[in-house]
Design brief:
This protein has helices at 14-27, 79-83, 96-102, 104-107, 111-119, and strands at residues 37-42, 57-64, 67-74, 122-128. It is of the alpha+beta class. A four-stranded antiparallel β-sheet has the order 1-4-2-3. Strand 2 (57-64) and strand 3 (67-74) form a beta hairpin. The chain is globular.
Length: 130
């Protein structure tokens, strides 16, 4: 498993990410195989994903370079959370856009700006069957 202490990008390769995810699952007592893991990388700027793969759960990471801004998880029935809520500040609690908008006073941001910023970040999703 890799541990980063420098300022290099958080996620280097899909294979490394898969290996790390399987290793962490094992630490949690979950037997998971690499062929059960799907990696979806959406480099910045990106269009939000259109769906969560059927029957899968996911962990997703919004990052800018080596800086991780938001990590989330969704169950197999959480399409809206996976595909759209993080891009719209008023859609749910604890979204990426709401977090960005919460800092708007310091940065002069609007709801539209927060949506554009969310789309402008890189996103990596790890979907797996458990």
């Amino acid at each position: 498993m890799s541990v980063r202490i420098d300022r290099t990008p958080f996620i280097v390769t899909a294979d490394q990410l898969t290996d790390d995810f399987v290793a962490v699952a094992k630490l949690a007592g979950v037997e998971l195989y690499a062929d059960a893991v799907l990696i979806e990388r959406l480099p910045a700027p990106h269009v939000p994903p259109t769906r969560l793969p059927q029957g899968r759960m996911a962990v997703y990471v919004f990052a800018r370079g080596s800086e991780v801004l938001k990590v989330g998880k969704v169950g197999a029935k959480s399409q809206a959370r996976y595909t759209s809520q993080h891009y719209n500040a008023g859609s749910a609690l604890s979204t990426l856009a709401a977090s960005i908008l919460a800092e708007s006073g310091r940065h002069g941001l609007t709801e539209q700006t927060s949506r554009e910023l969310a789309n402008g970040l890189g996103r990596t999703s790890i979907a797996s069957i458990f």
